[in-house]
């Protein structure tokens, strides 16, 4: 703070101090007894610890006030409401000072005074902070005052000079008086329970902060409670002070927004006589059943006594604010039973119960008022001793102390370069500037007792966090406030969903709420209660109406009171006052259709693995060798992929799963039929060679076959990648105004563009069919024409059945997705059953057929190629054997070819009859082929 600014501020403070002292003088000299009474409490100051480096001032209502000869004086001990917050502050300071990471080398302390729960007396007490400020300015800046001995004057031993901020007051009326004084010396103030909306005015109270929310939020919570119970018509009573006036303004301003009408409001204050209270009660009898009371406890207590005297115990349903609900007037329980109140968030202060209950008048010497409290609480004549109960709002006191501690710690980090203790740059020659501290307070963040981050909003208030209380009769005719809900942002209320972090929402646990004698809550409306989605047509009285229904797809516009349409993908909300996005529906792993598909696919996966294991165990047997082992495993991989794709297809649609489905839908078929095509093509080239060109078939080795399969599959890869780039996979929603949900699907499912990936596999299916026919006369171990043909025909049949089913089910049916998955699984089972199960049957159950002779046997009546005539008996004779090797290790010409080996043919593959003998030659198989010259010539 600049020196010129300091001097100007000092002059203003001096003038204000003189005026306040002048105004306050008649009150203090009214009588000798009053001066003695006040001095016993107002002059008591708690400073703890004595060696504190920095002090936080605080005003707590240790005593109540009473009016004597028109003057407020301190009265009886208030009890828990004053002692508990004071001890909570001391308890928190001990916790902070024991933390080496917070304010290292600096001891934080408290300077506490009694406000006596009176705005006038609190104002007098606040003058001590001004006097301490002036003394500090005189000592560290401009010395304008000097003692007779030349020393610098100090106020109360100089302890007030260390005060950098103030905590208090408890009520809004006290906080208003304090904030008006403290702004002059730019001293930050944090209240732990003042909720008046007027205190958010930063032009009037720039240095005022609070850890509780503003009453503007409390008014919204009350109105939401009224709307939740359907109470569209209510009476309103408020106290004639800042707290009540602000609450009344907030309720009236926002009532129309929540479809609530208030009868003529009633203003009452503690100065009003009994006649005025009786008149208010008589007027309330003629109005609504529900009465909203926004007033302080003292005013509310008089109102309840008036209601009781009028014998109206069960006439009203009370809904109120935190000003009167923190405690209940004695002997008013039956009048108040069933009431609902909104209070700042109720959370216990951890560890405080053990601490407070361990205190006694002997052990707690640092608190000068505790002995009086201890004597009052343990008075043997007090037969009805109230058991200890922690005040629900003590954690707000903790938040205030921690806010100062963290703000000071931030100043220390910025100015002291890690050096422990209060450095000169931070203290500015013994004084921490209030504007610097306020800036840090507005940006402070720390963890509160709920485990959530605490921070101040822009208006200096805490986050809107409230507990909804219900006054219930418990067992034994005991009454107590019971928490039944909350009104908090989503991060504090786990029941609230779909809201922004700072936007509060109301949650009520209605099953545990109780009214009088377990009866249902009353109704309060001068019109017919409209159901959700019904428009209210005002009648002569603006609070009365008739109802008109909105259509199913319409919502009620609260501004125009007209029914408006929601678009196709939206539906009216539960209150039918707006549109919300329809519930999203899609097939997932919990869907019964998906479970069926996955069970079917899992069986296929197990079967595929089992076949692969059997192939591996019997890898060197003739039947497995003849099946082209490498291509068989590629085929098994494609079949496995077909089954695995089921889990992708039935998963929740996303860009990733949609892309996988579009790519692998055709890719899995391509892998399968590329392997089948390569296999049949190879057999055809080996066994159906042109007799005029007796050369060995080329590209029959395993490596060659793998290359061919890769080339065939790469075509599908290129097609799919190009398709994915051109038509990016995304999700979309299908909406229909007649349904109350929207379907999330992959794009392309509704316009059938998925067929692009199946065009190339269908071409391969056609070629496989051609080559299967060409190899129909090969030896039995190589002849799979029937099986391949059956596989192809069945695959085509599957798609002919499933594609129309897929198209006809419509976008709103889960069967559409399952159709896609089941078609892949069925295709995989057909390929397993036709191409592998016959071989598995021979290997496991017909080992006598798993021989080289059986594999190479040929039983047919037509030639491979050539004459086309049926052979006569003269043509049936033996000739030189054609040797076909199945052992991968057999070499020819010094080169390991592997797989199926056919030596160069120097014979005419003529007609083989049913009597063709065969034998074993050089570990190969031979078949007798007649070498008739005329047959050769005929070819």
Task: Please give a structural write-up.
- The chain has 939 residues and is of the alpha/beta class.
- The protein folds into five domains: 3-212 and 351-386, Rossmann fold (3-Layer(aba) Sandwich), CATH 3.40.50.2300; 215-347 and 465-518, Response regulator (Rossmann fold, 3-Layer(aba) Sandwich); 534-581, no CATH class; 592-850, Rhopdopsin 7-helix transmembrane proteins, CATH 1.20.1070; 858-939, no CATH class.
- The strands form ten sheets. Strands 9, 10, 11, 12, 13, 14, 17, 18 and 19 form a nine-stranded mixed β-sheet that branches. The protein has a six-stranded mixed β-sheet with strand order 1-5-2-6-7-8, sandwiched between helices.
- Helix 17 runs antiparallel to helix 19 (629-649), helix 17 (592-617) runs parallel beside helix 24 and helix 21 (702-726) runs antiparallel to helix 22 (756-774).
- The protein starts with a helix and ends with a helix.
